[in-house]
Design brief:
Glutaredoxin; Nuclear Transport Factor 2, Chain: A; 7-stranded mixed β-sheet; 4-stranded antiparallel β-sheet; Peptidase MA superfamily protein
Length: 467
């Protein structure tokens, strides 16, 4: 995540944030984390043989989901309303109208695309689950009864999609799976959409890029293939800057991390605070002064892959000069490159420090230019006695500024005292775990010193830099 206080602060991609059902952060809690998906707990479909009633219900809702998929992807605004129940809330109805509008063909072309997100596939379908069935809330059921509904169901649903593909050139990413629940109601032989998880009293279904009004898309050629910049109205300057900066930013990250990542990205420019907030739910380390955040859908640790990664900029990015925006972009793309090898609870001093090191490399001539708040503290005799803890990064103001600058300076120290290859090795070891003992072992394996010796050497280096 990036914050601004007269100047920019790096993005905290290791924060826990959601988009598409995605948590920011550098990893997940287990080997096949799907941490961002809305839980399908308390949905239906058991392992016992289905009776005729259940089969008919599943078949009817499958037809509804097929019609929903076809209506949205064809941009058919006339038909989308037919699929929505009269009892659905205005916000729920508007979500589908907006999504359908964003799939409609455009009359202009920009950046080599027609202004729309393009998909290799896009499909809503019933999801398998062994959880017990959830009852439709009494207040919702009362409205459906009054409308003459003969049946209702809280259906487990998956949205499965992938950008790009042979028939639709684009970013060409792996499949993203978003799990949710739909409340559906039957009238005769037809089923209609009533609501989602929010109608059940839970958190709303994570917002997708195409569910916010007036989405536009432009393509950019980068080292690993086509990258995508998704944007909303009044972000023209940010988009223009990102188009120029993105290829070099990808190359700068690869220069440190290597070519073992996709070397392409989906970057999002928002123009209103609510757009950023809906795409990025604030969590660990996210502050109100954020300038950007990186989010993802799923990490498969054994296969070292991550899906659905997005770099999302706040409206404040429109005020950033191009060189500053470049630093932020390189920082965020470092999180993208490192995602599949970074644990969810990895210490922020290493994840943010290395991302900040890559982002700022070659952009300053004096230590004080890169770390003014830390410089001031050291001159006042307050040399850090230890590495910043995670809580310090989540606070607005001077505390978080010093935390970020301290993390950057530790990475800069390791690169200067050892080299960048050892810094990457340090990252891979320390960021792989939340266990301090394993982190200590990783420090010694990478640098040949223990944590206390590392901190002591860093302190001497800081003092020398400031003097």
């Amino acid at each position: 995540m990036v914050s601004l206080r007269g100047r920019w602060r790096p993005t905290l991609a290791s924060a826990v944030v959601l988009i598409l059902g995605v948590i920011t952060g550098c990893g997940g809690p287990d080997a096949s984390s799907d941490a961002g998906s809305v839980s399908s707990a308390s949905t239906t479909t058991s392992t016992t043989p289905a009776n005729v009633y259940e089969q008919q219900r599943a078949a009817g809702v499958t037809r509804l989901l097929d019609e929903l998929t076809e209506t949205i992807t064809s941009g058919n605004l006339r038909e989308v309303g037919v699929l929505l129940d009269d009892t659905a809330t205005p916000a729920f109805k508007n979500r589908w109208v907006t999504a359908t509008a964003n799939f409609r063909p455009r009359e202009f072309s920009r950046g080599g695309s027609d202004g729309r997100l393009r998909f290799a596939h896009f499909d809503y379908q019933l999801a398998p689950t062994e959880e017990a069935e959830t009852l439709v809330p009494a207040d919702v059921q009362g409205l459906l009864d009054a409308e003459g509904s003969s049946d209702s169901w809280v259906a487990p649903v998956e949205l499965r999609y992938a950008l790009g593909g042979e028939r639709a050139p684009g970013v060409d990413e792996s499949e993203v799976v978003v799990s949710t629940q739909f409340v559906v109601a039957r009238y005769g032989d037809e089923w209609k959409l009533v609501g989602d998880a929010e109608a059940l009293g839970g958190e709303p279904t994570p917002t997708q890029l195409w569910e916010l009004p007036a989405l536009s898309v432009t393509d950019v050629a980068t080292a690993g293939g086509t990258s995508v910049i998704a944007s909303y109205p009044r972000t023209a300057q940010t988009v223009a800057n990102l188009r120029r900066l993105l290829p070099d930013a990808v190359d700068a990250v690869s220069a440190f991390w290597g070519d073992s990542w996709d070397r392409r990205a989906v970057v999002v420019a928002t123009s209103k605070p609510n757009e950023f907030e809906e795409l990025v739910i604030q969590g660990r380390g996210v502050t109100g002064t954020a300038a950007a955040a990186t989010v993802y859908n799923r990490v498969d640790y054994p296969r070292r892959t991550a899906t659905g990664q997005r770099v999302v900029f706040t409206p404040a990015a429109d005020d950033l000069a191009a060189p500053t925006l470049a630093v932020v972009l390189r920082h965020e793309l470092t999180h993208v490159a490192a995602r599949a090898q970074t644990a969810l609870d990895a210490p922020l001093w290493i994840t943010e420090g290395v991302a900040e090191f890559v982002g700022r490399k070659g952009t300053y001539t004096r230590f004080a230019d890169a770390a003014p708040d830390l410089t001031e503290a050291i001159r006042a005799g307050d040399v850090p006695a230890g590495l910043p803890d995670d809580a310090a990064f989540a606070m607005d103001g001077a505390t978080s500024e010093v935390a970020y600058q301290s993390a950057w300076s530790m990475a800069a120290y390791v690169a200067d005292r050892y080299d960048e290859a050892r810094l990457k090795r340090l990252y891979l070891g320390v960021a792989a775990t939340a266990d301090p003992a394993r982190q200590d072992a990783a420090i010694r394996a990478a640098l040949g010193v223990d944590r206390s010796e590392l901190v002591a050497g860093w302190g001497r280096w800081l003092d020398g830099q400031v003097r």
